[in-house]
Amino acid sequence: MTAISPSIDGVAGFQVAGVHAGLKKDGALDLALVVSECDCVTAGVFTRNKVRAAPVLLDMQRLADNPANIRAVVTNSACANACTGTLGLENARTTARLTADALAISAEQVLVMSTGVIGEHLPMGAIARGIALSSAGLSDDWAAAAAAIMTTDTRPKLASVRVECAGGSYTIAGMAKGAGMIAPDMATMLSVVVTDAALELGELQNALSSAAQQSFNRIVVDGDTSTNDTVLLLANGKSGVHVEDADDLAAFQEALDALTRYLAQEIVRDGEGVTKFVTLDIVNAATVADAERIGQTIGASLLTKSAFYGSDANWGRIVAAAGRAGTAFDPDRSSLWVAAGESPSEPGLQIFAGGMPADYQEADAAAIMSAPAMTFKLDCGLGQGNATIWTCDISHEYISINGDYRS
Amino acid sequence: MTAISPSIDGVAGFQVAGVHAGLKKDGALDLALVVSECDCVTAGVFTRNKVRAAPVLLDMQRLADNPANIRAVVTNSACANACTGTLGLENARTTARLTADALAISAEQVLVMSTGVIGEHLPMGAIARGIALSSAGLSDDWAAAAAAIMTTDTRPKLASVRVECAGGSYTIAGMAKGAGMIAPDMATMLSVVVTDAALELGELQNALSSAAQQSFNRIVVDGDTSTNDTVLLLANGKSGVHVEDADDLAAFQEALDALTRYLAQEIVRDGEGVTKFVTLDIVNAATVADAERIGQTIGASLLTKSAFYGSDANWGRIVAAAGRAGTAFDPDRSSLWVAAGESPSEPGLQIFAGGMPADYQEADAAAIMSAPAMTFKLDCGLGQGNATIWTCDISHEYISINGDYRS
What we know:
2 copies of one chain form a homodimer.
Chain A: E1 14-19, E2 31-46, H1 54-65, E3 70-76, H2 85-103, E4 110-114, H3 124-135, H4 142-148, E5 157-165, E6 168-177, E7 190-195, H5 201-213, E8 219-220, E9 230-235, H6 246-269, E10 277-285, H7 288-300, H8 302-309, H9 315-323, E11 335-340, E12 349-353, E13 356-357, H10 362-369, E14 373-379, E15 385-392, H11 396-403
Parallel strand pairs in A: 3-4, 7-9, 8-15, 10-14
Antiparallel strand pairs in A: 1-2, 2-3, 2-9, 5-6, 6-7, 10-15, 11-12, 11-14, 12-13
Helix pairs in contact in A: 1-2, 2-3, 5-6, 7-9
């Protein structure tokens, strides 16, 4: 197992800042800057929503044109710069140029991320102020940077992992924000991951795509997918370690997977109004894609989420959600178990068996479900497709947050 | 316009009953019987969930084998008889046989519907008592029958329409139940529609399939699809009117469309915890199917539903939901309007225009959205595909109802 630390002590060649630029009314941190002292090979994964925010469009273009010498990522919260047309794109470009000017680099070396309300223009005065403040105050304070990208998150999410290999040791570290609008295909999910290892671009992109698929793409908070989802991975090589051979690449992948999985789970734990952390182990579906889709459909179902909230072992809702996932599914071949905890060693109490209620006591199931974390194992009895999805309940608090987000 | 009456005075040759059989703990009506004095040609539309409840399986078989001489429909609430295996199917068959015995008809002439909690076996003693009571108390009391099929519905839903044609006049009348788990493809939605007109089976099935597609399949309460969805249409011909020629068939379709649309909208209005009735007019999508899917995705989005609840004209969430519908969609060609009311004559206030926020006052939008009914018109600017979807907000009350449904 890879040991993930829930903090970042520093990564060679990277400095960061989190400042109050003036976008958030309450004076909280709202602009983050991540800077490398040398060029980074950079990979990205972006939203699949047809509505892409201006910073997403800009970054996709930058990484297509210029993936080998990125130097900085500037991120603002409180305004998504989405559905803002040509002015929005211009503002994203200006944000990059102002950052480049402050750091004495080229605008093409800067990536931009935004999160917050859709359909409002970036307050460029505040952005300029934030860039001036942050570029003048770079340090190792990753906690401040992680706080500055939060929206309705209640706490910063950051993590790091140290990897030893034949050529030496290096660090992978990252921060993320989530909260609401979290769904398969990432939702309003921003993450910047950096490493002081050196990797070739193709390997780096493959590693990030693979890691995102088993982490950020396997969490469901509310089933909505945002216009701004972005995960970036910057590798500056300052550790002197070149990750090239198969063993080293496998070790890098394992560490990156563990890091992104941790950050993704942190997003679920801190989801809007979440009171329960729910792991859905879907096994023996016809294919892995089917298993993912069944888990995502269960995780997005309002009825199952309400039952999680109420500690109600209403397995009928889980099986019914599986049945409408649009995949192969046969209740008569399916069984379902529930256990307390995030990754229990045993599947626990069987509550559904081959199309029928299992023989169990309701009170036992309710006792398991009253825990803050629970795991359902759904055996579909059809094939070898397995996937684990992390999700949560829906509470009164979610409605309060999202009924009143903009006021 | 077809004049829909929100009550049923009686339909020639049909009698009904709604009784307390003992399934509901609070003594409320929980078993309904609809009986025709002569054979009915019968059409059905059923859930597309892969998990089908026992009564759905039984009725699908009955209508495949025996669609021309159905005599009765028996419906219980409080127990869905879903995920109940072979015993569940046996119980559904026994329910039909007991009903047939009480009415001195054949078991093959009886259809069965169930709604309620999944995964519990039908209490057959209560069912037998309800069948005895209801078969002994048949009358024109459709309100009692409609009350007996309710689960978390707060009021019975019934309607009738009188149609005049060259050959005379006839009635179409129906009842429905909904409340939660309402989604495209119908969800826990039961409806029995009867007519004293005579129609050929193929015409009747076509009329019902078409009517369901533009009514029950265009409503979204929570995006879940149930194991028990059933809409039945029984035609006994007692009015002496044969609906055969093209004009008469068109008039029948128009009346059936209006009736089912009314019942479907009633289901949304009475959805669990609903405080706002929202009409989504999706126009100029690439195809009708795309328009339906865009409307359904918006209607099922937790973020848009929360914004409806909070009277927040957060059009960004609506556009973002359209962008993830899996259809053709281009925000730069799209525009969005909002108006108060269920079917306003004008599109109202434009809030989004060609990929950009429109020039409007937030207070004006909030004022419109504080109304109990509102209509959004989304022009996709891509083709000629139009569809209207009816949906609702999500409130704290929904969470309370569904977090605590079984206790």
